[in-house]
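Structure ticket #2291
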Amino acid sequence: MSLLLTGLAASSGIAIAPAYLLVGSDLSIKKQHTADKNHEVARLRDSFTLTTKELKRIRQRAHQNLGQQAAAVVDTQLEILNDPVLLENLERLIRGNAYTAEWAAKVTTDHYLTLFEHMNDNDYLQSRALAVQDVYKRLLSHLMGVRLPDPNSLDHRAIIVAKNVTPTDTAQFDRRYVAGLVTDYGGRTSHFSIMSKTLSLPVVVGTHNATSQIKDGDLLIVDGIHGKVIVRPTDQQLEHYQLLAGEFAREQQVWGALRDQHTVSKDGRKYEVGANVGTLNDIKYAHDNGAEGIGLLRTEFLYMDQTKLPSEDEQFHVYKKFVTAMGEQRVVARTLDIGGDKRLGMFKLPHEDNPYLGFRAIRIGLAKPEILRPQLRALLRASAYGGLAIMFPMIATPEEFTQARDILDDERRKLGRAGVAVADSVEVGMMLEVPSAAVMADAFAPDVDFFSIGSNDLIQYLFAADRGNSRVAYLYQELHPAVLRLVKRVIDAAHAEGKWVGMCGEMAGNPLATPLLTAMGLDEFSMNSSQILRIRSLISHLNNRQLQPLVHRALAARSAREVEMLVKEYVPILRKE
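Resolution: structure written out below.
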């Protein structure tokens, strides 16, 4: 008898294949003491060495396969593992209490996790807790001689089913064999969900009970369009979804025909649909998927592998590669955006109870010009080789933008005096992700060349709801009228000054948001490469003049659900979403 599980559609597509349960081995232990403390310390140190080597291998694969975001999570684990205080504390427990290495690791891990539980629940703390658990799991596996589930060992086409999938798991996937992914936990805007789109696989997250309801080898249908998982489907269900899969494949072929065309709506308005990228490897995916530029170049990847800050020349050579690879297309580079859940090893950020609202992004750049100035010089030098634009993240006040732009202008003058080539015109804009900036968009608009709306942070700050916290995930609503009103306010303020507006958050790749964004006048969309052709195809079917009543009704609506129904009423091709 078939079973239907529901979750969140995190990456579109339909897959039909047997299940492969990626479930952890039994690493449960009991309290034990040792008569040979030196032996236990030696075992502990060996486990640290083996785990470090293992994580470095995984990190290399993560960076190659999924880019900076996946690698950054492994960096967090390596940072924890390489903290000398951790090893000292473990050795102290062994020598002071005669604990075995396993029990010392458990006591220490439980202590850290208890601390996290008593702090404010947010995405950063959740990611740190996951990182601590992953390090503990790997240390314990080496101490106990137990093999962990290895996604890389999969040798047949299957759908991965897991409680949660970390980037360290995802980095080991062989794309030849992984047909789809299903998890118990996770949200549509979690780091894993965002990265999974790069794999171009159907993904359903947040089912709550997939691992307990699905057995290894069960035939599954994963509907990544509607967020459904069918376990042991009937013949009729198989036939239905095989037809849907064929229809989806044909849609992708139609989308592919748009690859070398401009994005133009049915009523003749041109748009730009670009890619969010984090490494040079992402350029190929951007080109293959018809990106019309790079709407977000995450520069953090240049800093993640370093024990010291990258030099101006090192940065320049990398930025130049991005710019030249995109030809005449625009590349929008975001200055270093660290803090929150993104950490660097070369200098320690202060501990903060709520790092998402703390010392991060441009706040660090302005406080530490030794970081910001070399990056701006490198970007300005790279601008001579193509259409480079620069934007500052996390701007909250006009004074912050003025201060950042003054530093940029100062470095431009210095380069000019030194005879260094810089483009005649470099667009300078800002990420619009803080509600105060959205409310005062008209005050910023005369001074910026463009806005890029970072919808992920803007929405979570607007609703005071951490998008990584499952308890308040229901408040993260891209289609809520409050979000739409802010977005329209920003677009109107920019257009009043003759400036363009882009969006580089997850909302930019949401088909249900597309008709509203085009009709409100958004000029540029930037998203994961796998979503580009679908959004470009949808835009080509839209008549913005006919959608103006939809915008008025959506702005006057009371809920995201009401807006969703309105969109489907006005745009019939979205009724299956």
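Closing remark: Residues 3-24+150-253 form a domain with the Glucose Oxidase; domain 1 fold (CATH 3.50.30.10).
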